[in-house]
Design goal:
385 residues, TIM Barrel, eight-stranded parallel sheet, three-stranded mixed sheet, 17 strands
């Protein structure tokens, strides 16, 4: 990845580094308080605000009638009860391409907003509470904006919204482009400025560049992904569709996401964005333990080889490199379940947050925002300094 490691810094030692502007890091509720309630629902966003999140994050996709809704998935089968509703059985599509990946299910572009409002949202993680399945509804971008404004007034503190243009090339190919409608909503909210309580993010550089060219002045964030881990080498893997932004794929640009974190890549991002949103292992790599035969060891003895058998490596220089260019760093995604935590953290999500806060990260995307806030309080209170 062409990233240096921080010399003399052991993988779990908490160095004293500051955020870009010296403020405490933001806690961004990833799809709301999705560790507690079905994601991207008004109830999940409200819970996140009640727990103290600084910002709430809606992914944006479009309905057939062109309304922006909060959903991580164009495929409604992933997170709603649409498959159980006989009135929509005929709308199921087989082998439908999304960013080059074939999926089967029911897709938002085949449904009006009124129809989507009849669907119940369900938890996407079986380890999380299931008793709310089907009780809550998908919400529109405007409903999220209205919630943020009302709660900011009620609580007397700023709450930011952090929308992502999800699969923007896919939507453009469907004649349902996301950018103009998002720009319009931001203007209507009175938020088209760098100081407004909003960040706009995307994995596709072209989406951000288009909105900037059309006069959007808000803070923009380039997301940086990968497919997975190679626990033997400690390197990230880059299998489609997580190897590169899909607008790069369609244009024939053969660079990978990892090229974004090189000095040249960061400098390019600086020309159109204000920050980066990297996947966590770009900052703290992880690597498995090998036995004498060169095979990965099942450290926790559960019969599986996964993140819980990997240890953190020395942090890279990515945060420092970004800060030198004036780019803030908001890392994703922090979750509490043990399967999402490297062995070095001993099953304690606080330990992971504390390491990233100590490295000077400017914000964290968290699905359990009260855990992120509690760790931040430990790190940034007078007693924790």
């Amino acid at each position: 990845m062409a990233l240096a490691v921080i010399a003399g810094c052991s993988s779990m030692a908490p160095p004293s580094r500051q955020t870009l502007v010296g403020q405490t890091p933001l806690v961004i509720a990833h799809r709301g308080a999705s560790g507690y309630l079905p994601e991207s629902t008004l109830e999940a966003y409200q819970r996140a605000i009640d727990l103290g999140a600084d910002a709430i994050e809606p992914d944006l996709i479009a309905t057939r009638d062109g309304v922006l809704i909060a959903s991580h998935y164009p495929n409604l089968a992933t997170h709603t009860d649409v498959a159980s509703l006989p009135e929509f059985a005929s709308r199921k599509r087989e082998n439908w391409p999304i960013d080059g990946e074939l999926q089967s299910g029911w897709f938002a572009h085949d449904f009006t907003l009124a129809e989507i409002k009849t669907l119940g949202v369900v938890a996407t993680d079986p380890e999380r509470p299931q008793q709310y399945n089907g009780k809550f509804r998908i919400v529109t971008l405007q409903e999220v904006i209205d919630l943020v404004k009302a709660e900011s007034t009620r609580l007397g503190r700023p709450i930011a919204i952090y929308p992502e243009t999800k699969n923007p090339t896919y939507h453009r190919d469907l004649a349902l482009p996301l950018e103009d409608k998002l720009i319009s909503a931001i203007h209507s909210a009175g938020w088209n400025s760098r100081t407004a309580p909003i960040f706009v993010q995307s994995f596709e550089p072209g989406s951000l560049k288009e909105m900037r060219a059309k006069g959007l002045q808000v803070r923009m964030v380039q997301l940086i992904d990968a497919d997975g881990y190679d626990f033997k080498t400690g390197e990230l893997t880059y299998a489609p569709p997580f190897n590169r932004p899909y607008d790069w794929e369609k244009s024939g640009d053969q660079r990978l996401f990892r090229d974004m974190v090189t000095p040249a890549g960061l400098a390019e991002i600086k020309t159109y964005a204000d920050g980066i949103g990297p996947w966590k292992p770009y900052i703290v790599p992880v690597k498995g333990q090998l036995d004498d035969a060169g095979n990965l060891e099942d450290i926790n003895g559960d019969g599986k080889l996964d993140l819980r058998d990997a240890s953190t490596e020395d942090p890279t220089s990515l945060i420092d490199d970004a800060h030198k260019l004036g780019l803030f760093v908001h890392a994703f995604t922090f979750r509490n379940e043990s399967r999402h935590l490297a062995h070095s953290y001993a099953g304690d999500p606080h330990a992971e947050y504390l390491q990233f806060y100590g490295l000077g990260v400017d914000g964290v995307f968290s699905e359990v925002p009260d855990t992120a806030i509690a760790a931040r309080r430990t790190r940034h209170s007078p007693q924790g300094q």
